[in-house]
Amino acid sequence: MYDCTRQYRCTIIRGKSQKEMDDLLPAYAKVIDEVCPCEASEFEMKFNNAFMRYLPAAERVKKTLDNHRTEISGKLFGMYFFSEDGKVYESERTQKFLEDNDQPAFFKDICYKMQFPNGSQKTSPTVLERVSDGICIRPNAFLLKLLLVARTANVDITKREVGYYVLNSLDVLQGKANPYEVLEVISQDQKAGVERTIYVPGKQSSYNWQHINEQMNYLELANLIRFTDDKRVVLNPNEMPTIELFAEDWDKKPEFDVYSYDLNTAENRKLFQYAWDAYFARISSCAGKFATSAASLIVDTTEPQKPTISHTQTTNLTEFGDEGEQIVYEYEKKRVASFNQRLANKVLSLGKTRGLGYDIQSVIAEPGDMAEFVKYIEVKSTKRLTCPDVNDELWIDTLNITRNEWVAAQQHRDFYSIFRVYFTRDGIHMFILKNPMQKFQDGKIQATPMTYRIDFSNVAVDDVVYGLQREGA
């Protein structure tokens, strides 16, 4: 029998604000990709030295840098792991993010793998206490299932109710409750006018709610929930396949079995920590289903059950490389047409043509002798919950370009631009980088070679093995 009054404070590692998490993720990925793989003994120095440039001068102290390295990018985000060979490697999750630039998908994977107990916190005393108290839950799967059930029953649930009845409930955290009985108790209390809240004698409200707020922030960064002005928690109707995928696992045991480890000896705790770090650094088996469409970021919280994705928004990309190219193409068409309607037909979408080094061919369309000169645009899109602050001197972003794109930037210089398109919950925003080659030479951007092509002939071959067969063939 579910007893909501049995409360239990199950904390997670303290991160940063939602906006800071969105801004810091590309910086973490860039630094980890720069310094890894490396010797474990060198990792602290290399990470801290590389990351400090993204912090205000007052925060460039060892304690703060260590927190970013160990607690947030390491334990909370699983962006690298220590291997038994004495080296530190970037994780699959980091590699995937650098490839797809999909920040909500990154947070979806973290939310999907989040469990209690876990190895992100200190084994002694925190994990030992969780095990002793019988904690065993996939909290996000349970919460999303509850919100789905509430949606069907037409019951509104507030952030305060999520905290008290779910994320701070001992029965839920021990896996002894189900979403249906939790919803029944919430509904009964709502009808009776009973308002319950988390309260710890002698503690401030921030202490009582910090772990609740942070868990829910990650679900919002994952684009799965939104908060209305009156503090209700609503599902993102544009993300229903992912939400349902999460919810299917509400009654399953956590994937990583903490209870299979004897944590009473230092040696076993060390083995447990290695195993957890390696597990959490891997992307989940469902990660391929977590891609975020641009349209799914826009949610009308006044009508939260109404999807904002139309049929045309999901099917009109056949002639474009991605959603960002479509946005830039339409933007350029309007811009050029407003200057001279005759020139509008010179705006061409070429993203499907391989090897050019740019996606859009347009014209300058500005007063002067160069109005009809050709300009070349490479479009790079990303999805994130919030828009970067272009006035923030410490903000950084990272994108990948091909060799052909870099050559095109060298060749066309003043007539070549990168349009960075941000799809966010507040709309679509575009940052324009003109003449990136000149900016590289001026030290305003950094460019790092990422891949190498190896050409070889028979003189390089040492051994040849012919006639191999697969086992069982």
From TrEMBL:
It comes from the Bacteria. Residues 324-426 form the Protein NO VEIN C-terminal domain. It holds the Pfam family NOV_C. Residues 8-268 form the Restriction endonuclease type II BpuJI N-terminal domain. This is DUF3883 domain-containing protein. It comes from Bilifractor porci.
